[in-house]
Inverse folding.
């Protein structure tokens, strides 16, 4: 997989290494800015609310 | 020699192609698993580090935007008031309307917003006001939620609070000073913590309370419990009269001395 990627990239070895670094940085950025925030919505962690509903929204009615 | 040389190579190649297909699949599978492992590691880095970086940045911007009053040791108010405090009208959902000060946490300041939406409020290093609870200064239980870890972890040091510690709220030009009087870990569904009289749902309140709720224990497991801090109202003063003595490490005169 990564071997094929390496062969698909143009230029001498140092250009390919540089391109791979840029690609890796792009992947990390996409994960941090978009993928991880999306995934975290479905994670049960980090809900400090005193209620079990996942949305974190507390109904306007008196507490159950 | 030269004629026979290619034969074993071709032979090996052909025998290898069966194994080659398998090893290619295993190789790709291995690379996928490595990639997955790296991504999971990145997720942990993002959750434990980057969310703090982002939320702290937003929090600093918000504090600047709402022009939250900064405690000033040179301008300490001399008259604290224990009569009926002014109470702000309830703001719209999502509105940032006040600031929370906890001297015990190295003078930490946190914006207060209306509602406990995770993404829009809590994840931005703000304290979220439970909309069904009263506004600060009102008779009843003014309750706030905040993250214990990640996303700015505003309530990280909640267990370092001690009974008697001041918790100060600024809203609508008024300082409200509360004092911690009870701390406890509870199950996540024990909503009586934010009842008008904490722990006594259904009872008509006669006093002014403040309650902080956050995750417990520290770790990525808000599934286990919540940590609750209950505080009672002590005194109030208008912001133009100066900084409340408790915000700069001084002690306000006791209730008997005033009024």
């Amino acid at each position: 997989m990564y071997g094929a990627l390496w062969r698909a990239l143009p230029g001498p070895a140092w250009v390919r290494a540089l391109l791979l670094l840029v690609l890796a940085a792009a992947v990390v950025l996409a994960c941090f800015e978009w993928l991880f925030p999306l995934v975290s919505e479905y994670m049960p962690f980090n809900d400090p609310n005193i209620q079990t509903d996942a949305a974190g929204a507390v109904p306007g009615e008196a507490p159950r | 020699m030269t004629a026979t040389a290619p034969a074993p190579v071709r032979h090996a190649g052909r025998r290898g192609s069966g194994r080659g297909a398998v090893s290619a699949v295993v190789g790709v599978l291995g690379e996928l698993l490595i990639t997955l492992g790296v991504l999971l590691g990145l997720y942990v880095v993002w959750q434990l580090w980057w969310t703090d970086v982002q939320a702290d940045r937003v929090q600093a911007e918000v504090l600047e935007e709402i022009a939250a009053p900064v405690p000033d040791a040179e301008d300490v108010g001399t008259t604290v008031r224990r009569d009926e405090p002014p109470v702000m009208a309830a703001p719209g959902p999502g509105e940032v309307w006040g600031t929370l000060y906890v001297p015990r946490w190295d003078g930490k300041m946190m914006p207060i917003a209306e509602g406990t939406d995770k993404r829009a409020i809590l994840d931005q290093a703000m304290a979220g006001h439970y909309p069904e609870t009263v506004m600060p200064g009102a008779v009843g239980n003014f309750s706030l939620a905040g993250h214990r870890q990640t996303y700015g972890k505003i309530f990280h040091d909640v267990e370092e609070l001690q009974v008697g510690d001041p918790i100060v709220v600024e809203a609508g030009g008024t300082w409200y000073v509360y004092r911690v009087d009870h701390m406890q870990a509870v199950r996540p569904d024990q909503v009586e913590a934010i009842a008008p009289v904490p722990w006594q749902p259904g009872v008509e309140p006669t006093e002014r309370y403040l309650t902080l709720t956050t995750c417990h224990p520290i770790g990525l497991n808000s599934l286990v419990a919540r940590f609750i801090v209950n505080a009672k109202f002590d005194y109030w003063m208008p912001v133009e009269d100066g900084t409340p003595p408790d915000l700069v490490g001084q002690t306000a005169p006791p209730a008997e001395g005033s009024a």
